[in-house]
Amino acid sequence: MSARMLFADERGEIFDHPSLSLMGRLGPSGRPLPDEELIPLPDGTKLFAMPGRYPSGWDPVSSAAVVLDSIAWEGRRVRPQAVCAFLPPGYARTYLPATALGEEHPDLPLWAYAAVGWKEGKFWAAGVRVDETDHWNPEHYDDRDLIPLVRQKRDHSSNRLLEHLERCALHYHCLAAKNLFYGRWECPLPVSPVCNADCAGCLSLQTGGTVPASHERLNFLPTADELVEIAVPHLETAPEAVVSFGQGCEGEPLLQAPLIAEVIRRIRRQTSKGIIHINTNASRPEGVAQLCEAGLGSMRVSLNSCRDDYYHRYYRPRGYELSDVTASLKTASDRGIFTSVNLITFPGFTDQPAELSSLINLIETTRLSMLQWKNLNMDPDLYVDLMGPDWEEPLGIRRAIGEVRRRFPALILGYFNRPKEVVEKKLSGPR
Ligand code: SF4
User: Fold this and answer.
1) Number of CB atoms found within 10 A of residue 61's CB
2) Are 24 and 53 members of one domain?
3) Ligand 1 touching residue 204 (CB < 6 A)
4) At residue 160, what are phi and psi to the nearest 5 degrees?
């Protein structure tokens, strides 16, 4: 039996429809969603009702899509809302929810909306696991353990960055910030209050003003002392230690390249352990060269598209081009640095043949070490509008991932940044 379509009533209570099957959407177009695309909901998935969006389902009798804009349900008339899933880190969504806009439809906040249905007594979502690392697993994050650890660290310091990261950990539930206080894995080093892009889905600053940013952006420039004071103990003692410049709560770290270079040199005078990493838009190849020379270990570059026009539509860069981004990747690869692309994935866009072939070209020409599949956090209708009217028939996200794997067997595919052991092994093996 095919998965059933879900809908929510005005209070957000969720029901499965008695006859309509689940549909999904790739880019602008809805279609029946094959069962092979569905996985049982992973732990940590959130379900949302989508205000101002009616669900579309597939009627198997008439073989046609049906927009459910009203239903008689349990003795009352219901104006249904579409339902979607937000998958936890480590999973790429493969289909968007199939919806139709109501007369009033507020722009949706910055989450990654995936299709979800009901089958065999449980929820199923359209997604695929892309990373076996389980560092995101909710069982590793219990605020009852965390709060005393935060207090302990903060009581002994007047570091402004620590204060900022306390808010990230306890208020915004940033997993990387939590890791700092737990003393493990990847720890954030936000550094830049400013940016030279204006991404439509930027988590730390929304210039359009129709949806709120998800994080409060860092509002001061930390000193080298403040950064080193956080980084060194983490690198010295944390298992699988990574310290990362470039976070969801800041602007573009490369705009602070001289400061970061000084910090890297000071860290490396004190410890050789762990990886010093940067998440960046890679807009400044000369800044990347400076950081590599100082001792940067790995660099991850975010991209929504490897094609100029579509990159510009989303990033709205100020004073740089996509060619600078690829030059930065080459600069880092040429200096023996582990490079990855954080591919901001959108079902129906990322998996178009032209998009995939430009991605393949980028992997080849930059000698990339890793590709990370990250779901775009943005209202799907806004992104479709932003990308314009020309959409090719997509391959499907699963096939696109399979094609990259087939073309580049040595490329690491995943979701999370990698620790030193993996970085060193990769750099000593085939590229
Ligand atoms: S590059 Fe990063 S910080 Fe800058 S606008 Fe884009 S998402 Fe925001």
Assistant:
1) 6
2) yes
3) yes
4) -65, -30
User: How many residues in the chain?
Assistant: 431
Q: Name the residue among 301, 297, 360 with its Cα closest to residue 328.
A: 301
For residues 169 and 150, give the distance between their C-alpha atoms in angstroms, rounded to a whole number.
Answer: 9
| 169 and 105 both lie in a single domain | no
- Identify whether residues 114 and 188 lie together within a single domain: no
Q: Does 114 share its domain with 146?
A: no
The answer on 309 and 243 residing in a single domain is: yes
Instruction: State whether 109 and 223 are in the same domain.
Output: no
Residues linked to residue 76 through DSSP beta bridges, in sequence order:
73
Query: What is the rounded CA–CA span in Å between residue 345 and residue 376?
Result: 5
- Residue 256 alpha carbon to ligand 1 centre in Å: 14
* Residue 370: CB atoms within 10 Å: 23
Residue with tokens 């028939």: 393
Distance CA 408, CA 29 (A): 30
Distance from the CA of 316 to the center of ligand 1, in angstroms?
Answer: 10
The verdict on the CB of residue 213 being under 6 Å from ligand 1 is no
* 318-326 LR contacts (CB < 8 Å, sep 24+): 318/196, 318/197, 318/198, 319/196, 319/283, 320/196, 320/283, 320/284, 324/282, 324/283, 324/284, 324/285, 325/281, 325/282, 325/283, 325/301, 326/362, 326/365, 326/366
- CATH number of the domain at 280, please: 3.20.20.70
pLDDT along the chain (431 residues), means of 10: 94 97 97 96 95 97 96 94 97 98 95 98 98 89 91 86 94 93 96 96 89 91 97 97 95 98 98 98 98 98 98 98 98 97 98 98 98 98 97 98 97 96 91 66
Whether this prediction's pTM lies above 0.70 is answered by yes
Ligand 1 mean position to 350 CA, how many Å? 19
| Structural domain span for residue 32 | 4-129
Q: Is the CB of 191 under 6 A from ligand 1?
A: no
From CA 398, how far away is CA 26, in angstroms rounded?
A: 12
State pLDDT tens for residues 213-222: 988 899 999 9
Same domain, 235 and 125: no
